[in-house]
Design goal:
It contains eleven helices and eleven strands. With about 375 residues, it is of the alpha+beta class. Strands 1, 4, 5, 6, 7, 8 and 9 form a seven-stranded mixed beta sheet that branches. The protein has a two-stranded antiparallel ribbon with strand order 2-3.
Length: about 375
């Protein structure tokens, strides 16, 4: 098994880094905390770079690439805290492509924006399809879905949906009367659809609360397994973003530890600083390894996907939490002020650990897969 990225994947990663370098996304993240209208729209960047069609088949105008390729792009976005439209757009394009929806070609070219409304697959602890609640910790029921031929009527709400505020088409996952998943494509401007842009803590994330009141859409011919794949793709993308953010936080911390002197010595020579940064590095390497596993599972071990993507999300989320805190600690007093960028990484870590089920939910899924008798085979 070759764990090295291919030449094409290296080019994809380098192209993503170059495309994102044209905008100072870190400064934009700071400005957006004061006025979110200043947040740059990275949709044109995503379209020009071809990210909108990454997971769409070549026969439908896409690039026909895999989840690991999408994770490479997400990792580069995470390095610079870019609010690239990946978390909502890519899972939506995956489901629409698998269902051969008529809009797929327009989504691949960027002429149509789609967003997936996150719905968590059932588990032993929660045997129903659920969504993130607007407040609190108890998960809310997925929208109720009533099927009539090729049409679906949906009632319910989904909070904190990535990229939904600017979408033309929403990919909604509802729960049918039999408890199974019902996926539907719903126009964002259709009757009974209310999309309210919102944000929480990290201004670089484009989020929205979506309410469906008798909204009608077109049913997507997908199995429960297909629908669940979108959830795990989102987990893998967040994990990849987190790994990218850890890379930058660690680079900045190490550079400062080398140049900042106290009592005649670089602070990086003190064990308290040195050991803390090595622990960040250890967790970063663990996260990178699990990203490889998640990418492998998407393509070759679909039965291990839930475990692999959840493990990557759990470990990468913990790594980002530690890296963000350690970046502040390494920089000392200045690191805790708005004169420094370190608090922006802390904000990204705090939202990432809660978004789309959260890091804790991913950890629970790992435990369920391991302890419930469905652990991956060696």
């Amino acid at each position: 098994m070759n764990l090295e990225p291919s030449d094409e994947q290296r080019l994809l990663r380098e192209a993503a880094r170059e495309a994102l370098s044209r905008i100072d996304t870190v400064s934009a993240a700071r400005e957006a905390l004061e006025d979110r209208s200043t947040l740059p729209d990275l949709w044109p960047v995503a379209v020009l770079a071809g990210w909108t069609g990454l997971l769409i088949g070549e026969e439908r105008g896409g690039a026909g690439l895999g989840a690991f390729d999408a994770m490479l792009v997400a990792q580069e976005a995470g390095r610079v805290l870019a609010g690239a439209p990946l978390l909502g757009t890519l899972p939506a394009s995956l489901l629409l492509d698998r269902a051969a929806h008529e809009s797929v070609a327009d989504i691949a070219t960027g002429d149509l924006r789609a967003a997936w409304l996150p719905a968590r697959p059932p588990s032993e602890r929660e045997p129903r399809w659920t969504v993130d609640p607007p407040t609190g910790f108890a998960r809310a029921a997925a929208p109720a879905a009533r099927v009539d031929g090729d049409s679906v009527t949906l009632d319910g709400s989904v909070a904190w949906a990535p990229d939904a505020d600017a979408a033309d088409l929403l990919v909604v996952v509802g729960q049918g009367v039999d408890g199974g998943a019902v996926a539907a494509a719903v126009e964002s401007r259709a009757d009974g659809v209310l999309v309210e842009p919102t944000w929480r803590y990290d201004a670089t994330r484009r989020l929205a609360n979506v309410t469906l009141d008798g909204a009608r859409g077109v049913r997507l011919d997908l199995s429960d397994g297909d629908v669940a794949t979108a959830w795990y793709l989102a987990h893998a993308l967040i994990a990849a973003e987190s790994v990218g953010s850890v890379e930058t936080a660690l680079e900045r911390s190490v550079a400062y530890a080398k140049e900042r002197y106290t009592f005649g010595r670089a602070i990086g020579s003190y064990q308290a600083v040195k050991h803390a940064l090595v622990e960040v590095l250890r967790r970063l390497e663990n996260g990178r390894s699990l990203l490889l596993y998640a990418g492998f599972a998407f393509g070759d071990r679909p039965d291990e996907l839930a475990y692999a993507a959840s493990a990557a999300r759990s470990v990468a989320g913990g790594a980002l939490e530690l890296a963000a805190r350690q970046q502040i600690a390494t920089h000392g007093g200045i690191g805790a002020t708005w004169e420094h960028d370190a608090p922006l990484w802390f904000r990204r870590a705090q939202l990432s650990r809660r978004l789309v089920g959260g890091t804790a939910d991913a950890t629970d899924r790992v435990a369920e897969e391991l302890l419930g008798g469905r652990s991956p085979t060696a």
